[in-house]
TrEMBL record:
<dbReference type="InterPro" id="IPR014541">
    <property type="entry name" value="Amdntrnsf_FN0238"/>
</dbReference>
<dbReference type="Pfam" id="PF19420">
    <property type="entry name" value="DDAH_eukar"/>
</dbReference>
<protein>
    <submittedName>
        <fullName>Arginine deiminase-related protein</fullName>
    </submittedName>
</protein>
């Protein structure tokens, strides 16, 4: 197994929340969110802080470089999911994205961008956030799942993913757009692409059955297979437990697959065995954070830049 892959970053940004709570502004179209009665806000916030801290400890022990930023405000409940507001790309390119929920726009932090400029070779920052007043949104690597090897941007059509803006991003960053619709069995649209599919170097995990159009479904499967990847087909039940929200990253001993304990518990033995043929799985326990409708992939903004 090659330790290096353009698909797997060796560094990530993680925002550790001090006042975490599920965001009421995103609950309208995020069917993965859970608002449980009975838990005090303080207890949920403490649990989420500890979960994020444990993720940092586990990843660093694996040799992943984790750039930790603290969020001590109570104005940004989803700040623990920074992959939605910025992404980084080989060649020194950074993108900043327009966000659908008004309170999520406050998550953009220019101290993060300045850190990237100081520690990595950044040639260009393209900021799309000025398109928010025009109602154009593209929520980063939540809205898009990027195949960095084949240069394809897979994107579910939603109010978080504007096809026109996606085309603009793909033109500027040299990706081919692959737009499709995806719904659960109740007909509810999937809000972000990265809860439906994960693209790693040697395999792709996806619920093909949730892709609404059969021709598009076949085309996605064909493109993934043509890339030489094994398809790990996920069920809708597994997607509901964030099985699509996994992320390949690189540590000191090679590539690993970061996923939540919730996800690990719903994968069957054959799926685990197939993935372990390529890379080890590293489960991370984040049940409180997952109540906000995102999981491990959402928490980790990968850094695909060269170090200074």
């Amino acid at each position: 197994m090659k330790s290096h892959s353009v698909q797997a970053p060796s560094a990530v940004v993680l925002i550790r929340p001090h006042h975490f709570f599920p965001n009421p502004q995103t609950a309208v179209d995020n069917s993965f969110q859970v608002n449980e009665a009975g838990s005090s806000p303080q207890a949920v916030a403490r649990a989420a802080f500890q979960e994020a801290s444990d993720v940092i400890t586990t990843l660093e022990a694996r040799g992943v470089r984790v750039h930790v930023f603290e969020d001590e405000t109570d104005q940004t409940p989803d700040s623990v999911f920074p992959n939605n507001w910025f992404s980084t790309h080989p060649g020194g390119h950074v993108a900043i994205y327009p966000m659908f929920a008004a309170n999520r726009r406050k998550e953009r932090r220019y101290d993060v961008i300045e850190m990237l400029k100081q520690k990595y070779r950044v040639q260009e920052v393209i900021d799309y956030s000025g398109l928010e007043p025009d109602g154009l949104f593209l929520e980063g690597t939540g809205a898009m799942v990027l195949d960095h090897i084949e240069r394809i941007a897979y994107a579910i059509r939603s109010n978080r993913t504007d096809p026109v803006l996606l085309e603009r991003f793909c033109t500027q960053f040299n990706y081919e757009p692959m737009v499709f619709e995806a719904r659960d069995r109740k007909g509810v649209a999937v809000y972000h692409t990265n809860v439906l599919m994960c693209i790693a170097t040697d395999f792709a995990a996806i619920s093909l059955a949730m892709v609404a159009d059969t021709k598009r479904r076949a085309e996605i499967a064909r493109r993934l297979e043509e890339s030489g990847r094994e398809i790990i087909d996920l069920s809708e039940e597994q997607i509901a437990h964030f099985a699509g929200n996994m992320m390949e990253i690189r540590g000191k001993d090679g590539r690993i697959l970061a996923l939540s304990q919730t996800t690990y518990d719903v994968l069957d033995s054959a799926q685990i065995r197939n993935i372990e043929n390529y890379i080890p799985l590293v489960p991370l326990n984040i049940p409180s954070i997952e109540k906000a409708g995102g999981s491990v992939r959402c928490m980790l903004a990968g850094i695909h830049l060269s170090s200074r």
